[in-house]
Structure formats: structure tokens, C-alpha cells
Amino acid sequence: MTAQVKHYIDGQFVLGQGQTQITVTNPANNQPIALINAATEAEVETAIASAKLAFKSWKEVPVSERARVMLRYQHLLKIHHDELATILAQETGKTFDDAKGDVWRGIEVVEHACNVASLMMGETVENVARSIDTYSYTQPLGVCVGITPFNFPAMIPLWMFPLAIACGNTFVLKPSEQDPMTPQRLVELFEEAGAPKGVLQLIHGDKTAVDILLRHPEVKALSFVGSVAVGQYVYRTGTDHLKRVQAFAGAKNHCVIMPDANKQQVINHLVGASVGAAGQRCMALSVAVFVGEAKTWIPELKAAIAKVKPGLWDDKEAGYGPLISPAAKARVIDLITQGIEEGADCLLDGRDFAVAGFESGNWIGPTVFDNVTKDMVIYKEEIFGPVLSCMHADTLDAAIEIVNASPYGNGTSIFTACGAAARKYQHEIEVGQVGINVPIPVPLPFFSFTGWKGSFYGDQHAYGKQAVRFYTETKTITARWFESDIEIASSPNMTIGLK
Q1: 144 in catalytic set
Q2: Is NAD one of the keywords (predicted)?
Q3: Which residue in 293, 292, 236, 304 sits closest to 265, CA to CA?
């Protein structure tokens, strides 16, 4: 039975009045599983107006009460963890274990939002001048917006609205139309946690809805995660309309392997980090740079990756699931073909892979290239598929030069047993998130997700202290009180209140 996806506008779940209908399909067989009536312009306007009205009262709710909403919410998310993961796996194609990880990383951010009172504390200096004190308050902005991608339909929305709302803002969430049922369930649980009407809105739709949100004068801040082209569009359009914007875009993450590293650990980590989640994550390790004699490990790496078999979400033997759409599959196949035509050595070719009984699904088998060079399309493009490109470097300096020449700076890792090499790498590398013997260095929520260069447009990053700064303004007060007023204030005044 095909489900009908609902919007959440002004405290009500509604089907929507839009004439444009979007079909949600199962990536494993491309059969319809849900339908969306894309939001109309009037519905988007209603959502923003409701959020604006709710802000007037929500910002006055004591910070401890806002934190209690988040405490109830994280409790409900934990109770419904496996249910959420099942919904997520069925609409994205992710394996159940991968889907559970998606949900759990989002829960960790909600747990961090429960600590919002200490995160919003201001600063005070007494006697900045004679008898003058200065202190600051952290205050919310107003209506904030989140535009989220298909690849993490639980984690990335939970990066955004819990912290924004805990800070005293209201929020309009526009998730990917390719997997909308997980965000809908997140919102249902948020309502159950006791969030007041209007604090959170959920809008489903296409570019029409996005453009309204980007340009609307009542929207104060925009958070986005997605492709490079759309990220640049969101950043430029949002800032052109004088909004605060954080836009997380593309990536090309490198792993540098030194010859003194633990070979088996390197191989084990590279398998999951390169083809896990079908490579559909912005922190995937898609390039492995082998330094010196480490290149002799590539045949063993190929053999290990060849053992990974894609499969259905509930197949416990499956290493990963299908790509999200036929278009995504076609793009990856085209890039693999270009890599072969450009002269890279294709050690594993996943273009013809299929799962028995689900041949119409968006399957790509694990793919490995060797002798990839910087001028090849498979190196320059973010493939977003289960494809690993292997490169060679004679020295650590040469490897650093390769990584720093990339226009992206989301994540990188080095595997080595040498502390000096690790120190040199972490210091000289021009990438925002660095792993040392850690394949995917995504920080926990009390830090921030700190992509650099073409991987991020904006100033303040997601979650952690930076997100609190993004979703708030600082008000600074300078106060002077005159001691001569103490006697007047202390004296009885029988006329007070009579005039």
C-alpha cells in the first residue's frame, strides 16, 4: 500500500493542497512506496507565519523548560530507535545496521541540545571602567530553516532543528523529497515530546518551496546540506537576501596510508569507509593515497573489498544497499566508464551488479581503481557511489600536496605508526576534520562538524558551540549605577503609586 506523506503546518498534519505530486520509490526495486503533494506557496507562507507567531512566546519560555522538551524528545527517540531505523532503511535502501547508526548519531545531537542552558551562557566583566559593568546575553534569532539531503534523513535534520529550537528559535524543516517518511516520524515524536504548536513546521516539496524559504523576509537563518551546485545556490541566494547561511556541500576525502601503518587495520577500515553506505555520504573515503611501499597492499585491499556484497536492508549479510535513485546509479556508471576511458586501472568493476529478484534496483557493486591521477574525472568529481580511487605518492610531503590541492576540505585521514608523521599531517593539511588512524573523523556533538574550502559555505558550522552561535545573537549591556542613588532608593516614600 502506498503511504501518503504529510506536512506539519501550524500544529496540524495535513496532506497538502499542491497539484504537483511527487512519488517516493523503494531504491531496491523502484516501486512506489509513498506520495507527496508538494507544498503550495500559500502553505509555505502559512508555515512561516505560524513559526513567526510561535517565536513570540517560545523565546520567552525559560531555557530550562526548553531543555526539558529536548530531554523528553531524546527519550522518545531512543524508545522508537529501531522503528525509525526500519522506516529509514526501507525508504533509503540502507542496511538496518547503517540505518540504526544514522538515527543514533542524530540522538547524540539531541542529547547535546539538552545542555542548552550552559551553551547559552553569556559573559560578564565587572568594573570595565569606574563603577561600570559589562555583560552579554545570548538570544535567539527568530524563524530558522533547514534544507536536508536524502543520505541521512534522521541525522541531518537532528543536526539542525533541536539545537535551533532549544536556543529559543522556531524552525521550518524542508527535507529531501526522496525519503520524507523518516523526517515525518521525527516531527511526530517531537510533537509527542510536548513541543508547542508552531515551534516546528515540516514542508515537503521541490525547488519552488526552497526558493520561497531562501527569499522570505521573515526567515533569519538557513542551514543546508547537499550537493556543491545547490549549496552554492543556497548560500548565494540566502545571503543576497541578507540571511545568515551555513551550507555544507561536496567533498573528496583522502586517506593517506604510510608504509609503517598496521596493514590489516588499514584494509579493514578502508573497506567500510570507502564503499559503506554505498558511498553515499559526504565523509566517505573515496581516495586512498599510498605512500612508498604501502602501494604493495592494494591487491589485498582489492580482495577485501571484493568480498562486500550489496543487498536488501534486512539482509544481515549485505555490506550496503542500493543507490537512492536510477539517476544516481546512471551518474556513477558514467563516471566509472569515464575512469576506464581515461586510463585508470579498474581492479573491480561494479557496473553490472544486481541482486537476484531485485534486478530493477539501483545497484552498484564495489569498484576499485588504481593509478588514478589528479586530471581524471573520477578524481575531480565527487562520485557519491561505492568507488575507491587509489593514488601513489613517494613521500608524505607529496601526499600532503595532493590533498591540499583539492578544492574540497571536508575530511581526511592518515594511517601511520609514527607520531611525528601524524603531527606533521594534522598541522599542514588544509582540511577541516582530520582522523589519525580513524577512517571517518566525524566529531561528536560537543565539537562541531567543521568542513573547509569548497565543502562549506558560511562562518559557523553544524552542532556544538558553533551551531549555538549560528542560531543566536549576542546582546551586550554596559551598565552604570550611581552610589548617590542608594540613599534615595532606601528612603521611605509614601507617595509612590499615588500619582
Answers
A1: no
A2: yes
A3: 304
